[in-house]
Amino acid sequence: MVYRVSSLFLLAVALALFVGAPLLAQDKNTHDGTFVKAVSDKEFVMEDKGKEHTHTLSADAKVIGPDDKECKLEDLKKGQKIRVTTKEGDKTIATKVQVMKE
Length: 102
What we know:
Layout: H1 2-25, E1 30-38, E2 43-48, E3 51-64, E4 81-87, E5 90-99
Parallel strand pairs: 3-5
Antiparallel strand pairs: 1-2, 1-4, 2-3, 4-5
């Protein structure tokens, strides 16, 4: 009896880890928010948890639209949900901006 219970417990733990892995895999350099405006072709403002942040795109940054295709910063619309990946050690430099599908 104890053997069955412990086996089921271990199976449940393994399943929970497998299902939860994508949540843990989210890069610590990413954050989600709402697109506010493009200041220029390399700079934009987003809102995250009620605060506005300005980011500058890195030279090799990618901007991905809602159709999963690369686009320009100016193509984004106010209010779109976005996920921003920042440069390691500098949270003001964005290496990727992706519009989240709703």
